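A protein record pairs a chain with a discrete description of its three-dimensional fold. The shape at a given residue is found from the number at the same position. Here is what such a record looks like in full:
>
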Amino acid sequence: MEKKSVLSRFRGREIGVLTGLILLIIVFSLANHRFASLDNVLNILRQVSVVGIMALGMTCVIVCGDIDLSVGATYGMAAMLSGTLMLKGIHCMAAVGIGLLTGLLIGLLNGLVVTVLRVPAMIATLGMQYIARGCALIVTEGGVVNLMTPKASEINPSIASFLSFGSGKVFGMIPNMAIVFIAVVIIMAFVFHKTILGFKMRAVGGNANAAVVSGINQRAMRIVALMIMGFLSAFAGMLNFAFLNSVQGTMGEGIEMDVIAAAIIGGASLSGGEGTIVGTVIGVLIMYVLKTGLIYIGASAYLQMVFIGVVIIIAVVIDVLTKINRE
């Protein structure tokens, strides 16, 4: 029975957004034949990797019934901290590890404030957004961390390996960033849909009181979800840092909106309890196919925001109507 209900949810939500994605691809391909070129497809895959990785974490948070507005600041702070450490001679692997631990710590602090102090997640993570952004600026004194200078390579030879990974390609054409994204999707799909952890997260978001009666520690699940979000935000920051070669205090500013939008478009319900990894992947693809397609047909860059806003509203309306229909 459980397998059947999961399949029904997949058909109802993911097939719908997948159909929308296919229609967008067909329309833009007909409008401009270059849109369907291999180079553009690979470029889209590279672009979605950063937001996509963060959106997977956001799915866990939203499914638990919370929201995280600090992801952009965590993304930027982790990258700036790691870059600063690399420029001080610390091996890139150690510096990246410290950056990832920073993301976990931010997620843990968010979780404790939300569950122990009972501060609404939106307020708690908004405050953390300012704290993390301010700390990132303090660490670099408002400057830019650039790893491409000759002096940087002299100080720390391991920087070359870090940068080559970010710009590297498998078989000379598939970006490493896309491969990493696919790997994270597979891992998160397994954790979220095939382990007891994912089941408990969905249970907490669906009905917290029933989850507690069933013996599920709802506080622990919400904290874990926010820690996963913090870790994936930091990880995405490292990945993009390795590609861009430099980072500044404003890195990741506003990216939290794209991350939340991707999860919502993919079917994650803001009321909690519903959402899938596959749906989120389709959601982020819809966003970037739409952005890239509008560029290819010569539409204004400002028009992208309008269309994405419309898509988000449609996704939320569908979610509301689905709940009303069930009731």
Notes: The two ends are 20 Å apart (CA to CA). Residues 1-9 have pLDDT under 50 and may be disordered. Strands lie at 145-146, 169-170, 174-175, 246-247. Residues 114 and 121 are 6 Å apart (CA to CA).
